[in-house]
User: Which sequence fits this backbone?
């Protein structure tokens, strides 16, 4: 079972943080190992999943989209229907319960698009904990709606106005807070990134997605899907849906943000174009220059705008267990429009990257084949940004024209 | 025995506290930085940590972080820092330690760095995001200075002691770098816990800015590290660069006073 005792998935992972923080990480690991198989913990978490989040989320056959593309049958795993609007809540409730068990009274989170921040603020509210969310000032501008939601939920949102002014520097700031406050605070990392044991814990909490898909697909189709697609920023929704399929004959494809193209600073295609390096506590693939300075990144989607990726993804790419591709901003926006028009579902821009790849892949496959897309979040938060992007006049997207 | 180890041990033998200074390599500009380093030596500084600008310095507080970002904006990197260290070596005689985050080291390669350090007279390496277990996995002749903190459990203190380093960097607080008041009892208690485990010099760092603090801790620690305080002075006097070296020298001399036996 991976990771190993030192937190490594093959060559990737580990624990690259100041020594000051090591005791906090050892505590989290020990507490998690105890609770992981504890029936009371599991049943409490399942209670929240079912009655608070609304799990299990549906696996929906996208009939009109499938017909318009004329190839593989497309299914959507509706994580967008979760309470708070994305898969992030699966992890934040799990870690908040863990933090409570450890006697912590405060949650610290980093956020890019704000989905993880909202999910953490929500978990803090329902568990009666304090919450501080760090968010880059650039992201605060493009995700104002989520900032207000977090504040409504009682969280303190701290703007990070340095470096990239996005998720990367918000994460640095969250770590600095955690180093000072771990006696009473838990840093609730939102993706399968960071030092051991975070990549393991977040993967485990998100695996509920893949477990449900497996059962639901078997129930509906009597077999397993041919393809499972998910967008990859840090990689938590992808890890969550891929993990239960790793030993099956299912093609797993992670879709990264290709941004405006492959020039440095213009994309976030870490697994496609990055190199080995250490950021935010783990050895993984990274976008960086030849001197080891972390690169600026770009994506139309704030949630994918990050120069790193979870170490287990780096390992799965190396082992060729998962294929990683990327799509551009333009393709993602087209998919955003296409899914809205064809199925009446406005996807998060992050998830729209996975949809965009499906638009290319499905027509190349046979109708006997099937694709599951992890629709990791809903797109309400992106509407203001898209009004700007589409010049306030969204025209019908070419890919989305459906002739019934 | 290295120059660093000899000089720190000799001071301890005289019951004198060593003063280790931290400065970001080449900032605000190479010449002014070099003048400040000469002033540190002039003021009585005993060893020098040269900081390498990194884009994501998560162990550092706001003041030193600003210097990192300025370094990044000026295009500085590990290679520049090593070139700068060569100039420092020619200008002053105090022992040099490199303070660098791990990713730039990983990209350069540990062996390349070790050779470069030897060539420019850097005797040891502090990597704030490389905890003790990961240090053990790195194979090199270059000496690693281990860091410990008030939060470190006994077995981690033992791990640091077992490395038999020139000094152990004892972080004073659960926190990042930056000037602040220190929790006296907690700091003393953990230094006293570490002391019997090792012959290594115990250097107390993070938050040191006044002669009074040095008086408070001089019987518990063998050395103190001052960094953010110097960076603050550099920011304050940057617009009057002709005054800066004198200010640095004065500050070091003032801190050095209570270090004496």
Assistant:
């Amino acid at each position: 079972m991976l990771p190993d005792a030192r937190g490594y998935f093959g060559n990737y992972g580990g624990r690259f943080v100041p020594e000051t923080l090591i005791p906090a990480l050892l505590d989290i690991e020990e507490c998690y190992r105890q609770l992981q198989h504890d029936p009371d913990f599991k049943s409490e978490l399942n209670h929240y999943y079912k009655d608070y989040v609304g799990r299990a989320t549906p696996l929906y056959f996208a009939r009109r989209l499938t017909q318009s593309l004329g190839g593989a049958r497309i299914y959507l795993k509706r994580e967008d229907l979760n309470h708070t609007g994305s898969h992030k809540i699966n992890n934040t409730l799990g870690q908040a319960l863990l933090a409570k068990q450890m006697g912590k009274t405060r949650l610290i989170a980093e956020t890019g698009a704000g989905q993880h921040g909202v999910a953490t603020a929500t978990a803090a509210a329902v568990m009666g904990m304090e919450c501080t969310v760090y968010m880059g000032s650039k992201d605060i501008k493009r995700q104002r709606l989520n900032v207000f939601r977090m504040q409504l939920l009682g969280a303190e949102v701290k703007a990070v106005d340095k470096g990239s002014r996005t998720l990367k520097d918000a994460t640095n700031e969250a770590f600095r807070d955690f180093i000072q406050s771990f006696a009473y605070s838990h840093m609730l990392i939102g993706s399968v990134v960071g030092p051991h044991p975070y990549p393991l814990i977040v993967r485990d909490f998100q695996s509920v997605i893949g477990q449900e898909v497996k059962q639901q697909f078997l129930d509906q189709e009597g077999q397993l899907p041919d393809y499972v697609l998910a967008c990859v920023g840090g990689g938590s929704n992808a890890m969550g849906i891929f993990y239960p399929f790793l030993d099956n004959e299912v093609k797993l494809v992670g879709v990264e943000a290709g941004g405006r193209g492959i020039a440095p600073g213009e994309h976030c295609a870490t697994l496609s174009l990055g190199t080995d390096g250490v950021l935010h506590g783990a050895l993984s693939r990274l976008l960086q220059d030849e001197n080891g300075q972390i690169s600026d990144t770009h994506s139309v989607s704030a949630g994918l705008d990050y120069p790193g990726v979870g170490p287990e993804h780096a390992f799965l790419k190396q082992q060729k267990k998962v294929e990683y591709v990327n799509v551009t901003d333009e393709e993602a926006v087209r998919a955003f429009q296409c899914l809205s028009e064809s199925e009446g579902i406005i996807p998060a821009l992050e998830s729209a990257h996975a949809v965009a790849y499906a638009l290319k892949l499905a027509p190349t496959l046979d109708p006997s084949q099937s694709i599951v897309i992890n629709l990791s979040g809903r797109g309400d938060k992106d509407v203001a940004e898209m009004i700007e992007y589409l010049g306030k006049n969204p025209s019908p997207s070419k890919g989305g024209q459906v002739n019934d | 025995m290295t120059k660093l180890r000899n000089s720190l041990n000799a001071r301890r033998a005289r019951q004198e506290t060593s003063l280790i200074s931290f400065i970001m390599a080449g900032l605000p500009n190479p010449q002014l930085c070099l003048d400040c380093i000469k002033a540190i030596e002039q003021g009585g500084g005993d060893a020098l940590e040269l900081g390498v600008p990194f884009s994501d310095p998560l162990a550092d507080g706001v003041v030193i972080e600003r210097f990192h970002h300025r370094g990044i904006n000026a295009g500085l990197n590990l290679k520049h820092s090593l070139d700068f260290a060569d100039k420092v070596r020619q200008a002053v005689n105090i022992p040099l330690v490199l303070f660098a985050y791990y990713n730039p080291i990983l990209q350069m390669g540990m062996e390349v760095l070790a050779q470069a350090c030897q060539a420019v007279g850097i005797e040891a390496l502090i990597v704030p995001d490389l905890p003790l277990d990961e240090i053990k996995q790195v194979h090199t002749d270059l000496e690693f200075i281990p860091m410990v903190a008030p939060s470190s459990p006994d077995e981690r203190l033992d791990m640091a002691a077992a490395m038999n380093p020139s000094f152990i960097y004892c972080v004073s607080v659960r926190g990042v770098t930056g000037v602040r008041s220190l929790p006296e009892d907690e700091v003393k208690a953990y230094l006293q816990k570490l002391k019997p485990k090792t012959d290594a010099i115990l250097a107390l760092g993070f938050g040191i800015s006044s002669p009074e603090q040095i008086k408070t801790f001089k019987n518990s620690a063998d050395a103190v590290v001052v960094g953010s305080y110097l960076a603050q002075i550099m920011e304050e006097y940057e617009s009057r660069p002709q005054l800066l070296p004198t200010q640095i020298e004065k500050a070091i001399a003032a801190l050095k006073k209570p270090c004496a036996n």
